[in-house]
Amino acid sequence: MIQRNGLRVLSLYEGFFSGGARVLHSTVVAGLHQGGRQQHSVLSLHHEVRREATLQRMEDDPRYRALRAAGVRIGSLGRSTDAGHDPRVFTRAELRTAAREAGGAHVVLSLKEQPLRLVNQDAFPDRPVIACLHRSDPEHQGDALGDLLTAADKGRLAAVVCCAESTRDAYREAGVPTSLLRVVPNGINLARFRPVQGARRLALRGAAGLPADATVVVYAARYDEMKNPELFLRSARAFLALEPDGHVLLCGAGMTAANPDLQADLAHIFADRPDLLGRLQLLGVRHDMELVYATADVVALTSAFGEAAPLCLIEGSMCGAVPVTTPVGDAPSIVERIGFVTSYDPAEIAATWIEAAARREELESARTAVRPRFSHVRMIAGYSSIIERTHREAASVAARV
């Protein structure tokens, strides 16, 4: 039986739905809870969230199931984004639930800044709060930046964990005190995300309907303006026209034939070459991305803004694909020596995908050399250190009062 010390930590989630931030934070929570030094729990503001035209229930989410399997207790305020109530107004019952959950914790983590609107309520217990940020565009976060700055002004924030240097720089410029900002780089489970060679790779390609000698580009992103799907599709059209053996796989929320906006994009961009669409697959949300990446030669990102340390580039490259990205957030430093950075020109992007695929084996040793840098063990240790330091400092202040 795991013996835990007295440090109890509550994480606040806006909700459970597909996204890299939830993947990473849930990895941290499960890892720390199973490590035995801390006891973690989660409170989700919503029990179901509508994203990319899909209503996602928390019980159906892989992160929810993984946390429960790790022994993490999960509660909810019971909200639904379809209910239509004001997201900034909380009922007395919701505040009582939040107070009970936070009152039993020594430290509170906020997954991104959105849950801080709950933390800033007068009824919320006085606990040190650590905000965990995963983007580099505070100006695109609606009221959330104001909630973050309010929490800092009220003395609620003990620290702000940034997943990338670009996140730290952006929020410092937005007015978050430098003394609060810490950087803990993203990490992944390297035992799960690893290269596949030979017959296994060919078998995965066969199961996916991909020719053995195809040049395969994977795009793992939700259908969202930030991810710039139109640029990706224009690049894909140029790539498929140039590369007769090229195939393109699109994964993520909204990357399905049921998305009318995506269908409109495809109809417009491929209007003069509908034949190319036979080599483009819409896979939607996948929970076996390590197998999808293992079929790929290239993992592509065409985002316009907001990225910090894109998970797809890390996961894809550690599975053996060459990362090719636009110059957003920390993406250029992530792909340094193992991939390529392009402009926002579709022709250049398509040509770079072809070059990257041709050099995949050449770059294998470089990818192997950087693997330890992306270990989730380092990430979890970084979060653990900040949480424990926050607890010690809060206990020291309380002892002096």
Automatic annotation (TrEMBL):
Pfam families assigned to the protein according to its UniProt record, in alphabetical order? Glyco_trans_1_4, Glyco_transf_4
Q: Tell me the ranges covered by the Glycosyltransferase subfamily 4-like N-terminal domain, including all copies.
A: 65-192
Q: Molecular function terms in GO for this entry?
A: glycosyltransferase activity
Which keywords fit this entry according to its UniProt record?
Glycosyltransferase, Transferase
Query: Record's InterPro entries?
Result: Glyco_trans_4-like_N (IPR028098)
| Matches recorded under Gene3D superfamilies | Glycogen Phosphorylase B
Taxonomic placement: Bacteria, Bacillati, Actinomycetota, Actinomycetes, Micrococcales
Protein species of origin: Promicromonospora citrea
Q: What is this protein called?
A: Glycosyltransferase subfamily 4-like N-terminal domain-containing protein
